[in-house]
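Hi R.,

Here's the chain you asked about this morning:
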Amino acid sequence: MAIVVVALFAVLTWLRRSGRSDEEGGAGPIDFAVNLALAVFLVVVAYAVVLCRDAISASDADVRAESESLVELYWAVAPLPQSAEVRDLVRAYTTQTVELDWPRMREASLDARTGVTLDSLRTAMLKLPATDSELRAEALARAAEVSHARTVRADNATSGLESVFMVSMVVSGLLVIALPWALRRRPTLPSVIADVVRVATVVTGIVVIHLISQPYGIEGAVDPGPLKEAQVRYDEIDRLLPNAGAA
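And here is the predicted structure, written out as tokens:
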């Protein structure tokens, strides 16, 4: 932002010293081209906002689905004998997802330690005694859902707006800013105000789209709240099944 302000000041200073008077009163093909470029810029920004909003909503729904799978997994393993280790690993995985994965997803990656915990969880489940084949099968299916949910979350963390949108915004934005200066008109107070508004509009639009172009790129866009709610549900399940998992 500071660079933009300095550049704007430099251009206005140069036009003030070397620019000529506006003899056309601001009319002409250049003004039409500026208005057209601005219209293109605003259309691209609006469409990009819709796409980014949909991506954030989809990522939020995926987190809720992952939370539900974890809770259902905890329900499924709770009655099985010797399931204490599995339940501890479910809790650990949920905690690590919130505390370790979430900060890393802003950098388009996941924490490797959470993946190790998930592998340990699935390994521990395979060691459970097959006293209730239906519950064991359901638990294994839920564990597969959790693993799939992690893969989806990793994909969401690395996804982003297609580059064509950013290129279109930058090109049309530069035209909106630079075309009026091509006439080398000496700046007046109204023209300076117009320049500032144009630059602010373009810079704000590009910055906002850049921030929300990745679902996890801005803090709070996708809330880990459902996973925190799952941690509360685990305690509720343990209270409802006080002797669960006994050998």
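One quick note: The CA atoms of residues 5 and 184 lie 19 Å apart.

Cheers,
M.
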